[in-house]
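tokens incoming
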């Protein structure tokens, strides 16, 4: 039986708590709910499984609720702090939004992932942003839009598209990763539109 389950009642209850009790999570949680995502229920290993192995159809969001969850999400899932001077990174909250399709085309699954990392200050956020830039295909070219400093990349052929996006504004960083058929990417496009971001999919030739 699938361990990773969604409780509609819990999602409604907890999302209200998250929106009122966690500074900075509101906009991205609103975007997730508008897309039809439900709050994930399960342990951290199940969250990691959804993030790194898109074998099942899922459409979820999750907001870190304590320091233990924060550490797991920022390090095990996002890799933040693994090659930084300060391994704690200054992150104070992580919001994770994931849309997976297990068998979307041929033998591949697809995943579209959007993360919001809130740091303790702007300096810490900048360090997190710069670390995520190293995860991109090419040396990123910084751009500006709607108060964000950001970099995006796109790599694809007729079968597979891979995209990255890193966005910095104040003490928050948004990280986007996608691996999907070239005709897809609608989840990432939705979040970018809702949050005022330039989507990596604009780089498609």
């Amino acid at each position: 039986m699938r361990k990773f389950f969604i409780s509609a009642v819990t999602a409604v209850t907890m999302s209200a708590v998250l929106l009122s009790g966690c500074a900075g999570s509101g906009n991205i949680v609103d975007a997730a709910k508008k897309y039809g995502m439900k709050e994930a229920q399960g342990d951290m290993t199940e969250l990691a499984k959804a993030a790194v192995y898109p074998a099942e159809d899922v459409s979820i969001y999750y907001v870190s609720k304590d320091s233990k969850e924060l550490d797991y999400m920022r390090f095990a899932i996002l890799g933040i702090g693994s090659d930084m001077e300060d391994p704690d990174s200054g992150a104070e909250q992580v919001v994770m939004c994931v849309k997976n399709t297990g068998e979307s085309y041929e033998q591949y699954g697809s995943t579209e992932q959007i993360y919001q990392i809130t740091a303790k200050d702007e300096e810490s956020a900048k360090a997190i942003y710069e670390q995520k830039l190293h995860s991109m295909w090419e040396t990123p070219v910084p751009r500006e839009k709607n108060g964000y400093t950001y970099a995006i990349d796109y790599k694809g052929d007729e079968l597979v598209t891979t995209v990255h996006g890193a966005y910095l504004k104040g003490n928050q960083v948004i990280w986007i990763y996608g691996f999907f058929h070239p005709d897809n990417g609608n989840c990432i496009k939705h979040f970018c539109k809702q949050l005022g971001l330039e989507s990596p999919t604009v780089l498609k030739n």
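note: The chain has one domain: 8-203.
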